[in-house]
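Action item from last meeting closed. Structure (108 res):
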C-alpha cells in the first residue's frame, strides 16, 4: 500500500513539473533573423510564431519571392532553436528519461 501511495505522489510531482515546463515554454521567446536582420521571427518555446518583423527596405513588389524566402528562413531557424530549447527542458524535467505523457504536446 505504501508503494502505491509513493507512486501516486511521484505522479503528482511529475504533473507539477510538466505544468511548470509548459508554462516556461509558453513564456520562452526565441528570435531568429535572415537577410542580415532584414526579417526577424520570434517564436515561443513550443515553436509557435509570436512575431514577424520585416524591414521596409526589403519589401520590393517586383521580388516577393525573395521576401518569402527570407521569412521562411528566419521561421525555420527560430523553430529549430525552439526545438532545442524544448528538448533541453524536457530532458531536465524528466531526468533524461524519455516519456510520452498524456496532455503534453508532441512538438518535435
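Sequence:
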Amino acid at each position: 500500500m505504501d508503494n502505491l501511495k509513493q507512486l501516486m505522489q511521484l505522479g503528482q510531482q511529475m504533473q507539477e513539473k510538466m505544468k511548470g515546463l509548459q508554462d516556461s515554454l509558453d513564456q520562452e521567446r526565441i528570435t531568429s533573423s535572415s537577410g542580415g536582420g532584414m526579417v526577424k521571427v520570434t517564436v515561443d518555446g513550443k515553436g509557435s510564431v509570436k512575431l514577424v518583423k520585416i524591414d521596409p527596405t526589403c519589401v520590393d513588389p517586383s521580388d516577393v519571392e525573395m521576401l518569402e524566402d527570407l521569412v521562411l528562413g528566419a521561421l525555420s531557424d527560430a523553430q529549430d532553436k525552439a526545438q532545442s530549447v524544448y528538448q533541453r527542458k524536457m530532458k531536465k524535467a524528466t531526468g533524461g528519461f524519455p516519456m510520452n505523457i498524456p496532455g503534453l504536446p508532441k512538438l518535435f
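Note appended to the action item: Strands lie at 29-34, 39-44, 49-54.
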